[in-house]
Design brief:
By secondary structure, this protein is α/β, with parallel strands linked by helices. It has a single domain (2-237), classed as 4-Layer Sandwich (Metallo-beta-lactamase, Chain A), CATH 3.60.15.10. The protein contains 7 helices and 14 strands. The chain has helices spanning 39-45, 63-66, 69-78, 94-105, 173-177, 200-205, 222-225, and strands at residues 2-7, 21-26, 29-33, 53-57, 86-90, 118-122, 129-131, 134-140, 150-156, 159-163, 182-186, 215-218, 234-235, 241-243. The protein has a 7-stranded mixed β-sheet. The protein has a 7-stranded mixed β-sheet with strand order 7-8-9-10-11-12-13. The protein is globular, with a radius of gyration of 17 Å.
Length: 244
Amino acid sequence: MRVRFLGSGDAFGSGGRFNTCIQLETETGGVLIDCGASSLVAMRRFGVALNAIRTIVISHLHGDHFGGLPFLILDAQLVSRREGPLTIAGPPGLEARLEETMEALFPGSSKVQRRFPLELVELAPGGRRALGDIAVTPFEVSHPCAAPPFALRLEAGGKVVSYSGDTEWTDALVPAAEAADLFIVEAYFFEKPVKFHLSYRTLLDHLEALTPKRIVLTHMSADMLGRLGEVRHEAAEDGMVIEL
């Protein structure tokens, strides 16, 4: 499996980074973890074959994590001329929030007859769900967004990639990251406590409870980016590729 960080930034573009969007290249297609508002631009920048993306899994319903979906869906309809199916999975409330967002940005766009099959799947916390050639297990975390926020555990081709989503520390991260080949985890600030977000210091305080094989930090503020020289874990960059 190949993991590519199309966007590793926070909601505010700190460091000139794109919003969260992580691509998994599997044997039979492509998967996106989150699709923040800038993700279509990022996909163009890094030469992603849009029609090869078969599945998108959303951690939570904030704009920097799901706000790129209307643009991606319209591109599939009008520009890329997609014909193959696309599955978008996420928390309960995904379907209604996506329709509301599409109508706010492009009135009438959610009602158009699409040229490609689009399936929306609402995931249940703790329930493992097969989506094509991947399996996803969501774990509810702590990050208010008017819908359950998830950490995600994705399995494909014998590899496991886990992602914290946005959250303050919660013990749900322990099973989410258990023995994962890669744990992608938020480190919003270096040590400043911010409610509903993880700092790097908090991550270090709980490191003994976590058992992934590899940790990569993401969703970093300007504060965190300015202190990467003090960090002992890998930090994501836009365009960074990891082979698992």
